[in-house]
Amino acid sequence: MTLQLIRADTDAHLWAETYDRDPNDIASLPDDAAKVIAVRLNSSPPPHAVRYINPQAHDDYLRGHYDWVIGRNEDARKHFERAVQIQPDYALGWTGLDEYYAIEAITGEVNPLQALPQAEAAARKAVELDDSLARAHADFGAVIFFNRGDGVQALREFTRATELDPQDSESLHLQAKILCALGRYDEAIAVQKQSTAINPFEHPGAMAEVYVCTRQFDAAIRDGEMRLKDFPAAPDILQFLATSYHWKGRDKDAVEMLTRELAAEHDLPLANAVRHAYDTDGYAAVIRCRLAALEKKAKSGRVSTFDLAELHGMLGEQDKTLALLEQGARERDPQLRIWIQADPAFDSLHANSRYRSVIQTMDLPPSY
Q1: What is the pLDDT of residues 189-213, one digit of tens each?
Q2: What is the pLDDT of residue 46?
Q3: For residue 169, is it within any domain?
Q4: Which residues of the chain have pLDDT under 70?
Q5: Residues 14, 117: one domain?
């Protein structure tokens, strides 16, 4: 790289220098050059120089994030891993790896006891590399909560993330989920409203989700129906509309939303089976149909313990539900940590001593 310093008003040549670097040491070049220029101009260099980001590493991060958002998680992992291989000190690449491992734990594809420590290690690495990166603090806060149940430190990280970037809608969305899990419902609604106002596209069903947590089913239905006009195939809107309709006693509408959700997720056989089950034997048959599909999947791979517990809870099978909740607590199932008190499927268990013992084991403040 060759630098020239020229006085603009006279076009006089003041100074020039050529820099050569080994490709492995190129990251330091912009910072070194900035310091030299500052000295020549008799000024001080900025206290925090702009970090060098390898364009190929950043491209892999962006591709990985796109894959992650639309659910191609294994493709996302390959891009995130390539990003940090190209530039090991690229903090955003490490946040991508954290998000990959966290989603694997949330969906149940990988045992949370294995995936969550990997997610926390990647998130911690991102914060250590760039303490000014809002997304790194938000991801670190979420995984601290999922992996260790530390709500105090988690919210401290979210506060830091918001201070660094008040417009990061994903950070606010994650914070709202943690606040729901902690039973701080009014705060969760306010924070999710901020997130949705900033970016109504990435999680269009998020407001309905928060309203379900607070048992405000009418509000969830109003918000979901409004947004469904613009996002007719958004699985999260369809999911929480189906949930809200069911708990309001509108099972026919719930089945309609559920079949649309399954179709949007490209599971037409299950969508057809669910519709047939409802037409034949009512909503309980729908739950058993979904449960059978999940149990079949579990024979060839992992599924979320929470998903199983929720369906048994909706059927009123208390012993089976409690056994799964206890199992999920041992596994540190992230969905269970968020939903064990927020899901209406478990409301009938709130007075049960085994249920309360699970809440205590998970270090959650009781909200029953």
Answers
A1: 999 999 999 999 989 999 999 999 9
A2: 56
A3: yes
A4: 23-28, 43-50
A5: no
Residue 255 belongs to some domain of the structure: no
Tens of pLDDT, residue by residue over 310-332, are 999 999 999 999 999 999 999 99
Is 290 among the domain residues? Answer: no
Q: Which two tokens mark 287?
A: 């739950």
Instruction: Identify whether residues 8 and 133 lie together within a single domain.
Output: no
Mean pLDDT of the chain: 93
